[in-house]
Amino acid sequence: MHKKVEERNPGEAEFLQATWEVFDSLQPVFEQHPEYLEQGILERISEPERFISFRITWEDDEGRVHINRGYRVQFNSTLGPYKGGLRFHPSLTASVVKFLGFEQIFKNALTGLPIGGGKGGSDFDPKGKSDREIMRFCQSFMTELTRHIGPDIDVPAGDIGVGKREIGYMVGQYKRLRNASEAGVFTGKNPDNGGSLIRKEATGYGTVYFVEEMLKDQDLSFNGSKVIVSGSGNVSIYAMEKATEFGAKVIACSDSEGYIYDPDGINVETVRQLKEVERKRIYHYLESHPNAQYGANRTDIWKIPCDIALPCATQNEINRESALALVENRVKAIGEGANMPCTEEAVRVLINNRILFAPAKAANAGGVAVSAMEMSQNSMRYSWTAEEVDEKLLGVMKNIYKTCSETASQYGSPGNLVVGANIAGFKKVADAMISYGLN
Fold this sequence. Notes:
One of its GO terms (biological process) is glutamate biosynthetic process. By secondary structure, this protein is an alpha/beta fold. It has 2 domains: 151 residues, Rossmann fold (3-Layer(aba) Sandwich), CATH 3.40.50.10860; 159 residues, NAD(P)-binding Rossmann-like Domain (Rossmann fold, 3-Layer(aba) Sandwich), CATH 3.40.50.720. Helix content is 46%, strand content 15%. The protein contains 17 helices and 12 strands. The strands form 2 sheets. A 7-stranded mixed beta sheet has the order 9-8-7-6-10-11-12, with helices on both faces. A 5-stranded mixed beta sheet has the order 1-2-4-3-5, with helices on both faces. Helix 9 crosses helix 15, helix 9 crosses helix 16 and helix 16 crosses helix 17. The longest helix has 25 residues. It is globular, with a radius of gyration of 21 Å. It starts with a helix and ends with a helix. The relative contact order is 0.13.
């Protein structure tokens, strides 16, 4: 089957990597459920229901015209409206969008909430752009995307390069074009404008909640552990915050240019100020924390000895070499806060060496879980308190861990949460697809 996918999607390395990782886990499922093969579920689930590519034309502050490419993959709506973020980053391609959308199908299924899988974005780089330039770009982007989304059709959110500022601009353009106020068409909004409390924190918090459940099963904990968190965006900052709250010492984090190592423990407030307020590079951390060290090669962060590693930056940031370094330094657990941050070879090294491993589609599902909660609050014209949302998030992450762990054991791979997550997510969607017939 994977050969067919390769033939239909030549050169799309990231998408093919994502499909192979899922397909590799499913053999025991097909032995027990031949109906999945008979009804072509694998072929159907790996082909997007719709893939949209479009031109974005916008003008900078100097009056120069720029052209970018926009994407939206509406991958699978079996369980509900398409749901997934928008990424603004120059590395975004059709392959990356499809990989993210494919992962989103199963991640959303694991939450137990009624949402399908989608993803999108643009190769636009918001770094160095003025607020006015970002506004004009977002308005041009939404002029096309508006015709493809809606609260019961497709509900985008933020991702890398897209925060509440960008979402605010896109929601404003959507309202102008639709002549309607449909609060539920976007999630990740400013809480003052229909957004959910804890949404910004949800992916990072949820990753730590999931990993803590995994650690508990081995009589381990974040408490007293040394932790490395790659990245310094929303996922990283709030994973560091929650890990610290759980008693861990976070000793390193990074950005796209390098990493900082602070043996005294990373000051999360300093990182938050640098990244969320001042929008500065991570090496500025040393100005207020002179005992810290800076390394210009961000991949060297994985050579620092730690108990728990949380890759929260981007896809394929941990390769085989980095995984071997982590193993050699006796890491106990890895939790994927980013989407597919470990290569296939890295995952193999970690699992073969019996390192506790929390895969992204399970561990980082907290963000989309709270996004679905935001949709519910918008539908009710009501807002839950931060404590209520956080409690619901904790419950979702505990249930996802339990589902993955039990499914892995049921299908002959106890402790392998990659297998458990892939099978549990696939079965939920596959069973629903069969019930709906050929669609």
